Write the structure tokens for this entry.
Amino acid sequence: EVQLVESGGGLVQPGGSLRLSCAASGFSFEDYTMSWVRQAPGKGLEWVSSISWNGGITHYTESMKGRFTISRDNAKNTVYLQMNSLKPEDTAAYLCNANILTRHYWGQGTHVTVSS
């Protein structure tokens, strides 16, 4: 059974940093691209970032370039999202996504609140 478990969210002041983690199990983690997606209160899903199977290729949505960094540790079956210079508009539930053989799997999400 595929499982994705996010952690690391919380309350942070504007300009602060957080590192999110997503622990994966139930599939060959090292073979698949992993992504982070977020959902702000009252809004739809927004793709944040993706990382290729070996970490060699990363993509970010434009508003997060230079502030967010995605990485992965295939030995630990974990993907990370380092978020710096956080803004109030980054407040959202952050979800981990795995696209395995055209089927999407999601974690339960971890909540990030950016507020003073």
Observations:
- DSSP finds no helices and eleven strands in the chain.
- The mean pLDDT is 96.
